[in-house]
């Protein structure tokens, strides 16, 4: 059945319920891999899923139950079974704390009747043409590129009918010396690969390997540290994920203050803004909410609500927290949907090279990984450096640190203590790339970034 037919038949099967939400998703994905400077595999994959949210009147309010399947839908009876299973889940859940009326349609979607979008291996044509030049030289090249077009159809018993096609692409390169003694990582996010220069990415990695001609050992400690855009993205994405309004209202998050949420608190005198915007050029995301399960800041009852630009940090001050409609009503604040991109602006026009040139002594990182929370009340995170930590002396990179560090630091303290912020550019968060790719970040200088211990692994 066509996705639109699945939506309509499911809603018809749920007509006796208090309400129903149907989400149909189709994914088309292409990938390209290479190892040891040789192309290895490429391929295409497709998948689909149907999610049904049943709303049921129960004693004390309205209950919500969700059921999903990735099985091919070939018989209307399957949809009736999904509705029955979702209804049963709702009745077992009891009244929902986030119950709200489903939103009414604001407009007709002219793309509703269109089929799902499909990518092809041809999306990598420019990339593949550049790989021979990227592979030139003595180093070993490993990498992976992926491109996905995800089409979603949303239908509700309140009359909402929306469709959206989400492009998501990324490339990662890991370049190693021939004896595998050093490695360097670069990566990029993209919507369609037209803006990816794989030769330049490989050249950037090769330059870092050259910095490793001299090796040094350094103890753990606090170092003036230059964080590149990728590392900043991994820290700021975690901050954005932690800006739930309910936990701040209830006093158990880093955004909770002695007199309520820290909205309005100034973090820095620098004019820094951290925001999400569904209309950001090249990083667009769904202009309406699609929610399969409720949680902090998100509610199945909000399906179809419009998304919008939200400034989480504005001019150096905490400006907003995420609230579902029910949470906003409970706490007397504004409904604030989360975002699927993140942009950090307000710095200078300086590049990372400019910032290196102004550094007397410090560290330059490549990227972070294995990031985990230590203390949610301060948003203290721990993690590891990876694929290159470099010593900067008198404005030049002079050596590679021959080991990695474990760090302990809070993204809130990055904002509080940074002394220099450079030019914003699109980047790929290395740690969170499987869940979040649409980011634009600047490099930043943190005077005393805490390298808490030495890690001997590369």
Which shape, going by the Cα principal axes?
A: globular
How big a fraction of the residues is strand? 35-45%
- Overall average residue pLDDT: 96
> What proportion of the residues is helical, as a percent range?
10-25%
Supply the number of helical segments: 9
Residue runs with pLDDT of under 50 for 5 or more positions: none
Structural class: alpha+beta
Strand adjacency order, main sheet: 3-2-1-4-5-6
Summarize the main sheet.
Answer: 6 strands, antiparallel
Distance between the termini: 50 Å
Count every beta strand, where a strand is a DSSP E run of 2 or more residues.
Answer: 22
Radius of gyration: 24 Å
What characteristics describe this protein?
458 residues; alpha+beta; 6-stranded antiparallel β-sheet; 6-stranded mixed β-sheet; 39% strand
Description:
The chain is globular and about 70 Å long. It starts with a helix and ends with a strand. The chain is α+β, with helices and mostly antiparallel strands and 458 residues long.
Which helices and strands occur, and which strands form pairs?
Layout: H1 3-13, E1 19-35, E2 38-58, E3 61-69, H2 76-93, H3 125-135, E4 140-156, E5 161-176, E6 183-190, H4 198-211, E7 215-216, E8 221-227, H5 229-241, H6 245-250, E9 256-257, E10 260-261, E11 273-276, E12 310-314, E13 317-318, H7 325-331, E14 342-345, H8 352-357, E15 361-375, E16 380-393, E17 396-401, E18 404-409, H9 411-417, E19 420-421, E20 425-427, E21 439-441, E22 444-455
Parallel strand pairs: 7-17, 8-15, 14-21
Antiparallel strand pairs: 1-2, 1-4, 2-3, 4-5, 5-6, 8-22, 9-10, 11-12, 11-14, 12-13, 15-16, 16-17, 16-18, 18-22, 19-22, 20-21
Helix pairs in contact: 1-2, 3-4
């Amino acid at each position: 059945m066509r996705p639109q037919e699945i939506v309509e038949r499911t809603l018809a099967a749920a007509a006796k319920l208090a309400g129903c939400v149907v989400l149909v998703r189709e994914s088309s994905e292409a990938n390209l891999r290479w190892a040891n400077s040789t192309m290895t595999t490429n391929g295409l994959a497709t998948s689909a899923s149907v999610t049904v949210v049943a709303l049921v009147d129960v004693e004390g309010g309205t209950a919500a139950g969700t059921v999903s399947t990735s099985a091919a839908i070939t018989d209307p009876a399957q949809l009736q079974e999904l509705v029955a299973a979702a209804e049963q889940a709702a009745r077992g859940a009891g009244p929902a704390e986030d119950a709200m009326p489903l939103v009414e349609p604001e407009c007709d979607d002219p793309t509703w009747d269109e089929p799902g979008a499909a990518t092809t291996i041809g999306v990598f044509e420019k990339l593949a043409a550049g790989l021979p030049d990227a592979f030139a030289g003595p180093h070993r090249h490993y990498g992976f590129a992926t491109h996905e077009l995800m089409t979603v159809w949303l239908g509700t018993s309140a009359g909402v009918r929306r469709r959206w096609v989400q492009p998501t692409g990324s490339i990662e390169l890991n370049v190693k010396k021939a004896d595998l003694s050093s490695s360097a990582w670069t990566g990029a996010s993209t919507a369609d690969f037209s803006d990816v220069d794989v030769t330049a990415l490989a050249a950037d990695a090769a330059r870092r390997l050259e910095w490793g001609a001299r090796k040094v050992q350094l103890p753990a400690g606090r170092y003036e540290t230059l964080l590149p855009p990728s590392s900043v993205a991994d820290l700021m994405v975690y901050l954005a994920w932690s800006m739930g309004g309910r936990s701040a209202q209830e006093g158990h998050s880093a955004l909770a203050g002695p007199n309520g949420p820290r909205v309005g608190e100034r973090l820095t005198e620098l004019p820094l803004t951290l925001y999400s915007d569904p209309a950001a050029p090249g990083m667009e995301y769904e202009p309406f909410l699609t929610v399969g399960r409720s949680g902090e800041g998100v509610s199945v009852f909000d399906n179809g609500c419009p998304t919008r630009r939200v400034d989480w940090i504005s001019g150096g001050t905490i400006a907003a927290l995420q609230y579902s409609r029910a949470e906003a009503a409970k706490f007397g604040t504004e409904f604030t949907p989360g975002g699927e991109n993140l942009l950090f602006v307000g710095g200078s026009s300086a590049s990372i090279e400019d910032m290196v040139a102004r550094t007397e002594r410090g560290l330059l990182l490549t990227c972070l990984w294995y990031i985990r929370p230590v203390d949610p009340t301060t948003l203290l995170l721990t993690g590891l450096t990876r694929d290159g930590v470099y010593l900067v002396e008198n404005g030049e990179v002079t050596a590679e640190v021959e080991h990695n560090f474990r760090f302990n630091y809070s993204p809130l303290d990055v904002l509080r203590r940074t002394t220099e912020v450079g030019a914003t550019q699109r980047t790929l968060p290395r740690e969170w790339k499987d869940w979040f790719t649409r980011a634009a970040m600047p490099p930043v200088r943190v005077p005393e970034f805490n390298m808490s211990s030495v890690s001997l692994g590369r």
